Amino acid sequence: MDQKIKGILWWACLVAAPLVLAGMELFHPSGFTNSPGMYAYLCTSQPFDPRYWALGYFGPNWWFTMHMVQLPMLGLVSVGLWMAVNGIEEGLACLVAWLSRVATFLFLITYTALDSIGGIGLGRSLLNIDAMRAAGTLTPEQAQGAIALLNADWVDPWVGGVGSLISLTGSWMVLLAAVSVALALHLTRRAPWPALVLLIAFGWEIQTAHASPHGPIGFLLLAVAGAWIRLAGKPAPARRSLVAA
């Protein structure tokens, strides 16, 4: 791949996309599952409340839009993490690089599922319930049943928005990806160690939660690490030729 294109992709995937995510996650609330409950909180706009960490919440349309934007941004981050270990093909570093690729892949597919179900799909369901209630096509009893179903889906152990299989798998995979990318880059001396510490810290923060406050901190750390590694300009290891000289 042309070096100029690689550079553009690096800045897009490991700096620009994380900065977009860091900004959005400032308005991604957390801690509302138990009180007042998922639907009760997300069904309407909310002012700043330190209990829920976000600077504000703009209602169901925002929940839908935020996750529509978040999904491709996470895709770019995944591409960036994959790119970061490009060309590492020998020794222990190669094994660690492949571990990072597997972890990045699992992170991408589980977070795609999580954002599709608990973000995009949930956002549309919230909006559709509001629209149907306003149009009179949903009785109060039917609305309560739909709300109960959405609340149950939110805490579903397999696909729920908190503490589910896909949520926890994605969280641990992003940490594993960050740690293994950092280790592979360290073993090949392709990045300064302080930047790699920031990369690992990114993984830890997003493993904890991608909502505020951990999400903004984590993605900002990734953007700083990505810029630092790129500007440090340490060369990638040369590929070993398969043809004898």
Could you please describe the fold and organization of this structure?
- The protein has eight helices and no strands.
- By secondary structure, the protein is an all-alpha fold.
- It has one domain.
- The model is unreliable at 240-245 (pLDDT under 50).
Which SSEs are present, and which pair or pack?
Elements: H1 3-25, H2 33-42, H3 60-84, H4 91-135, H5 140-154, H6 165-187, H7 193-208, H8 214-232
What are its keywords?
mainly alpha, elongated, disordered C terminus, 245 residues
DSSP strand count: 0
Major sheet summary line? none
Low-confidence stretches: 240-245
Strand portion: under 5%
Report how far the terminal alpha carbons are from each other: 24 Å
- H/I helix tally: 8
Can you give the helix content as a percent range?
Answer: over 70%
Count of individual domains: 1
Judged by helices, strands and strand pairing, the structural class is mainly alpha
Overall 3D shape: elongated
Q: List the helices and strands in order.
A: HHHHHHHH
C-alpha-based Rg, rounded: 20 Å
Average pLDDT works out at 95
Task: Briefly say what this structure is.
With 245 residues, the protein is an all-alpha fold.
